[in-house]
Amino acid sequence: MASPSAHWKTRLHNRVKGYGWAQPVADFTPFGQPNNCMWLCIVRINGEEFGRGDAPTKAAAGEIAAQRACAELDRRGYP
């Protein structure tokens, strides 16, 4: 069973590499109040958005977005 810190970014990179595709690109944007900043991460594969996530830290936002990108790959039928 996967732990909460399942390293989704690593899983996504390995999965995409297995397809022979270019590596995913993660774009980060801060938003909110300066003393309560949140981060939005959008993961794109071959220029297409596959997942997004927001969290109080860049790392957490990146993991959420990567997890959602993996779920989108599943939804589209990629092994």
If helices are DSSP runs of H or I spanning 4 or more residues, what is the number of helices? Answer: 2
Mean pLDDT over all positions: 93
Sheet of most strands: 3 strands, antiparallel
Number of strands: 3
Structural class: alpha+beta
Radius of gyration over alpha carbons?
13 Å
What is the CATH third-level topology name of the domain at 24-75? Double Stranded RNA Binding Domain
**N-to-C span:** 19 Å
CATH architecture annotation name of the domain at 24-75: 2-Layer Sandwich
Overall spatial form: elongated
Low-confidence stretches: none
Q: State the share of residues found in helices, binned by percent.
A: 25-40%
What oligomeric state do these chains adopt? single chain
Class of the domain at 24-75 in CATH?
Alpha Beta
Question: What is the succession of H and E elements?
Answer: HEEEH
How do the strands of the widest beta sheet line up side by side? 1-2-3
Domain DRBM: 8-74
Pfam families: dsrm (PF00035)
InterPro entries: dsRBD_dom
Protein name: DRBM domain-containing protein
Give an overview of the whole structure.
The protein has helices at 8-19, 58-75; strands at 25-31, 38-45, 48-55. By secondary structure, the protein is an alpha+beta fold. It has two helices and three strands; from the N terminus they run H-E-E-E-H. The two termini are 19 Å apart. The model has no long low-confidence stretch (mean pLDDT 93). A hairpin with a 6-residue loop joins strand 1 (25-31) and strand 2. The longest helix has 18 residues, at 58-75. 38% of the residues lie in helices and 29% in strands. Helix 1 (8-19) packs across helix 2 (58-75). It has a domain at 24-75: 2-Layer Sandwich (Double Stranded RNA Binding Domain), CATH 3.30.160. A three-stranded antiparallel beta sheet has the order 1-2-3. Residues 8-74 form the DRBM domain. This is DRBM domain-containing protein. Pfam families: dsrm.
